[in-house]
Amino acid sequence: MSASTIASTIQHEPVLLGQTIVVIGGSAGIGFETARLARAEGAKVILTARNPERLTAAASAVDAQSTAVFDASDPAAIERFFRGLPRIDHVMVTAGRPYYGRLADIDFAKIRDLVGEHLLQALYVARSAAGKVRPGGTLIFMGGTGGRRPALGMSIAGAVTAALPSLTANLALEIAPVRVNLIAAGFVDTPLSAELLGDQLEKRRHQLRTTLPIGRVVGPADVAALAVHIMTNTALTGATYDIDGGQQFVAA
Questions:
Q1: Per-residue pLDDT tens for 13-39?
Q2: Which residues does residue 87 pair with via DSSP β-bridges, in sequence order?
């Protein structure tokens, strides 16, 4: 075997071979791309989502081992889902969406649910998954970087952004040796971003391309690559990993 053949074999060895990954919110965007990459790296994939049609399509695209339809903000549904699982290796949680609004316009009934999706959901998942994830595996939660910069309409997003790193660090101690980590993303070009921005999407893309230090827009594949790295590097726990192309450092 030549040196080039050996190098090629090493380079293409699947890093998640034989492992099982659960992606909560895996029917689109970051969750789907993480599932796709994990599958390409040899993992078995279990997908969940609220929308059965989108979930079926996503599961077919990544050859998912199984799927489950439920609302990830429902603690009883999360508990039932994990109770029925075999032992798994990693959990990625991408369900939920940000809330933007000025104080005078805040819908308090709505934000109770949305804050729960980000904070209480992490607690629900951690409690239910702790006994199912193998030692050295990880729970990965999704947060953001945009809320670190105070601005009008960012009260709720800012509060959640500040809370998630602390929650992650504490959970990493509570459920060790299962690892707990947080990915904090800036703008990511996903279907959710398109839904939130509407006809302003292309303008936002152009703005980011011309101002970000990396010279391009962050995509779901970038976040998926980080997630798979966190899964495979067993020295990582209790930490927050920013991925925003340098968005925090420029007026973007």
A1: 899 999 999 999 999 999 999 999 999
A2: none
- Strands, E, within the chain: which ranges? 20-24, 44-49, 66-69, 88-93, 133-144, 179-185, 240-243
Using the structure block, give the residue that is written with the tokens 């990511």.
Answer: 188
* Contact in structure between 178 and 168 (CB atoms under 8 Å): no
Q: In CATH, what number is assigned to the domain containing residue 45?
A: 3.40.50.720
Is residue 98 included in any domain, yes or no? yes
Tokens encoding 59: 């599961």
3-state SS class at 21: strand
- Shortest CA distance to 186 belongs to which of 148, 155, 154, 146? 146
Domains identified in the chain, total number: 1
With bands split at pLDDT 50, 70 and 90, how would you rate the model's confidence at 5?
Answer: very low
- How many other C-beta atoms are found inside a 10 Å radius of the C-beta of residue 15? 16
**Residue 79 scores a pLDDT above 50:** yes
Distance of CA 66 to the CA centre of its chain: 19
Within a domain: 7: no
The pLDDT assigned to 1 comes to: 47
In this structure, the chain runs to a length of 252
Q: Residue 245: left if φ>0, alpha if ψ -120 to 50, beta else—which one?
A: left
